[in-house]
Design a protein that fits this description.
alpha+beta, Transferase(Phosphotransferase), domain 1, three-stranded antiparallel β-sheet, 13 strands
């Protein structure tokens, strides 16, 4: 199975589908913003556990800039301490080749900006109750961020500074999640203050104090939430010039936006309080704004989470389904890669058959590369098994050695017995005693004619029994007596022939045992 195409052009990094970031396997790129890109990945555990996550990282062209890295790490430190259902949760923080990345919860859905664009194209504005419900959930998440404290209980004075429809996610089940605290400011603990003359955030959603570079507080996010509500209700921005510079000038001039025609007065008053240029007269906190929105909802109509889910399904259903199919294809390709790696593991870990001894194995760390169908190389690190050739145990080796020696001795004995059976049997004969022989005669001499053959002995043995035959005696030639320096060689006296009684025939093993 080939890897599915990415939903967004890949950033110029080595990240490709199948690339592993620690415990996470990249599946597909799903979004790219001004300074970051987002991937969908999966986390696998034991017993078939599997979970989809979103991984966000800085674009490669900004990774070498310490300012972008500082903002990225600020986001991680801030979100990690926020516990609220309307804020996307951060699960992990890591780095790959000095490139930091965030692991966030996966939310199946799309942004509020895409919903607003789809309704505008279909000429079906977002219903007022749904817009107010989304705004109330945004305020709940913002309040959790604004009230964030450190371990000692001191408030961190967090300000999002980039509240916009692009940073509000709507799930397919109707949940509302705030994301992208990339330029959020914890005024007391972030890495650095904003440089003079540098504006962070989308200009159209900036408050007058933010556009003027003044010190910010939670009321800057209240202004931005008012701009979001204004756009949801009428489909246009309250401040929009011919260029970004002219838009910025309108905001700095502190003019009030044009009222929305036909809007209920109670709702228009809420908008005016949110978009008050003088922040001293503006709604002071996200919690207060949430209460006001719920009060207005009771007057103009309230919506539920299911209403939001139905609207998302109506306008963004095909897009969400297409993304789901892409992710399913990516999961299929990932499963195929996993099966290939497991097959490779099986080949490496396979041991030679051994039915007698247990093979000794030594674990050894190893890494293998596996090419995916798309050409990507999957690095697989694991512990393979190096199988040593089993060595025979000592008792078994001794047994085999004894058996070999026994067989060799038996074969030698058989050959000796066969040679002895061919020699004529001999017996004792009468001969002059060694004492009566003349002194000048040699100790050992060749037999004379008067010596009778041993075969005439009365107890002659006609058939040699299976016993050891004495080796023949080597006789020494006569040495002339005239040599004064000659001394007769010391020789072994002639053995007296033995009369051996016949015994019944035995097998080789019995003879060998008797011989031993």
């Amino acid at each position: 199975m080939s890897d599915p195409p990415a939903l967004f052009p890949l950033a110029p990094t080595r990240w490709v589908p199948g690339f592993r970031l620690g415990r996470y396997e990249l599946l597909s790129s799903i979004a790219q913003g001004g300074m970051a890109t987002v991937w969908v990945a999966r986390l696998q555990g034991e017993h078939g556990f599997e979970k989809l996550v979103a991984i966000k990282t800085i674009l490669a062209q900004y990774s070498a800039d310490p300012r972008y890295e500082a903002m990225f790490l600020d986001e991680a430190r801030i979100i990690a301490n926020i516990r609220h259902p309307n804020v996307a949760q951060i699960l992990d923080l890591g780095s790959d080749d000095a490139l930091p990345y965030l692991v966030l919860e996966w939310i199946e859905g799309d942004s509020l900006s895409l919903l607003q664009r789809a309704t505008t194209q279909n000429r079906l504005p977002i219903p007022v109750p749904v817009a107010l419900h989304v705004l109330a959930r945004m305020c709940a998440g913002l309040h959790a961020a604004h009230e964030l404290c450190d371990r000692s209980g001191k408030r961190l004075n967090v300000v999002h500074r980039d509240v916009s429809p692009q940073n509000v996610l709507l799930s397919s089940t109707g949940e509302v999640k705030l994301i992208d605290f990339g330029i959020a400011k914890a005024l007391d603990q972030t890495s650095q203050e904003t440089h003079t003359g540098v504006l962070k955030g989308k200009i159209s959603f900036m408050s007058p104090e933010q556009a003027n570079g003044e010190r910010l507080d939670a009321r800057a996010d209240i202004w931005a939430a008012g701009v979001v509500l204004y756009q949801l209700l009428c489909g246009e921005l309250p401040f929009r010039g011919e260029s970004q510079l002219k838009t910025l000038h309108q905001i700095r001039s502190r003019v009030r936006p044009t009222p929305i025609p036909g809007l209920p007065s109670v709702l228009q008053k809420l908008l005016d309080r949110m978009l008050e240029p003088n922040r001293a007269l503006r709604i002071g906190s996200a919690a207060e704004l949430e209460s006001e929105v719920e009060r207005v909802s009771q007057l103009v109509g309230a919506a539920t989470t299911r209403d939001v889910a139905a609207l998302v399904q109506e306008h963004l259903g095909p897009r969400i389904a297409a993304r789901r199919a892409t992710i399913d294809a990516a999961l299929g390709a990932a499963n195929q890669r996993t099966r290939s790696v497991l097959e490779l593991d099986t080949i490496v870990d396979r041991k030679p058959p051994d039915t007698t001894d247990t093979a000794r194995s030594t674990p050894r760390a190893s890494s293998h590369e596996l090419a995916t169908p798309s050409g990507a190389v999957l690095m697989r690190s694991y512990t393979d098994t190096v199988v040593d050739v089993p060595q025979r145990s000592r008792p078994r080796a001794l047994s085999l050695l004894f058996l070999g020696l026994t067989l060799a001795a038996g074969v030698g004995l058989l050959l000796s017995l066969e040679g002895a059976s061919r020699v004529p049997a001999v017996a004792s004969a009468s001969a002059p005693s060694a004492k009566s022989a003349p002194s000048s005669a040699p100790l050992l001499a060749t037999p004379t004619a008067t010596e009778a053959p041993l075969a005439s002995a009365p107890q002659a043995v006609t058939e040699a029994p299976p016993t050891q035959v004495e080796p023949p005696v080597v006789r020494v030639e006569d040495v002339p007596a005239t040599s004064p320096t000659h001394k007769p060689a010391a020789v072994r006296p002639k053995p007296v022939p033995r009369v051996i009684k016949p015994k019944p025939e035995r097998d080789v093993w019995s003879a060998f045992s008797e011989h031993r």
